[in-house]
Design goal:
Helix content is 50%, strand content 22%.
């Protein structure tokens, strides 16, 4: 069987390009089995390339090929270990986030019959969609809540949010986008009422220092209290609450809506 050096190298470059393009596009969500399969294909192509070199030249650099193959195996092993660690961390963060949202949804169920609650929804306004963890409509206004499962010592400063002294993603910008979406949905329906953003930290293994300069900031155990004591410029009666809830429901584009 003849090996083509050009074909081998083209195959390797195609595999590498596919992985790089997937990562840049943000669609790199390979399972461990797919990742390992891809690496096996790379190794197989490299073996074919080295074999081709050796067959073409009986006095070819066999030692160099073996050395390069050993280096490749070391790199492959390091990549697998790194991706396993990253995947495990990503799964843990995702599970913590889901558990935090469930905890907040459970707490919001105790607001009472005067409040309408939406959990984990995608809302649409003029073609723009945003995922919002929780929306509450009650006598004292509308609240959109962003759940964060950050752990550690969390501190809001003038420059953003830090965890144990290290800067991390500040959810304030995300909540600003949600604020704009919610206000636009209401405005397009001719509704004028107060909208408040809330950043709620759900992880029990966290401490919170300071607050967002623009939005209500709290741990989950304070959420219900802060919603109920928030002062609105205009109080909403039951008819207005239903009208607003219906307006929000019409803007939802997913089927996972759960309203109390």
């Amino acid at each position: 069987m003849r090996y083509s050096r050009q074909t081998d190298m083209e195959g390797l470059f195609k595999i590498i390009k596919l992985l790089v393009d997937s990562k840049r596009a943000g669609t790199w969500k390979l399972s461990h089995s797919c990742l390992v399969l891809g690496l096996i294909l790379v190794i197989t192509g490299f073996i074919g390339f080295c074999t081709n070199m050796f067959i073409r030249n009986n006095h070819g650099p066999l030692f160099l090929c073996i050395l390069m193959f050993g280096c490749l195996l070391t790199i492959v092993f390091s990549i697998i270990v790194r991706f396993q660690s990253m995947s495990s961390h990503s799964r843990s963060a995702e599970e913590a986030g889901k558990k935090g949202e469930q905890h907040i949804a459970h707490q919001l169920a105790f607001l009472g019959d005067d409040y309408k609650v939406f959990n984990h929804v995608f809302v649409n306004i003029k073609g723009e969609q945003q995922e919002i963890d929780h929306i509450v409509v009650g006598p004292n206004g509308i609240f959109h809540i962003e759940s964060k499962a950050y752990s550690g010592n969390l501190t809001f400063t003038s420059t953003g949010l830090s965890k144990d002294g290290q800067s991390i993603e500040d959810p304030t910008g995300q909540v600003y986008r949600h604020q704009f979406i919610m206000e636009s949905i209401l405005k397009n329906s001719g509704l004028n009422c107060d909208v408040a953003g809330v950043i709620c930290f759900s992880n029990p293994n966290s401490t919170l220092n300071g607050c967002s300069p623009a939005f209500i900031t709290c741990k989950v155990d304070r959420l219900i209290h802060l919603i109920k004591v928030d002062q609105s410029k205009t109080l909403l009666d039951s008819s207005s609450i239903k009208q607003i809830a219906d307006c929000i429901e019409r803007s939802i584009v997913n089927d996972n809506t759960k309203m109390k």
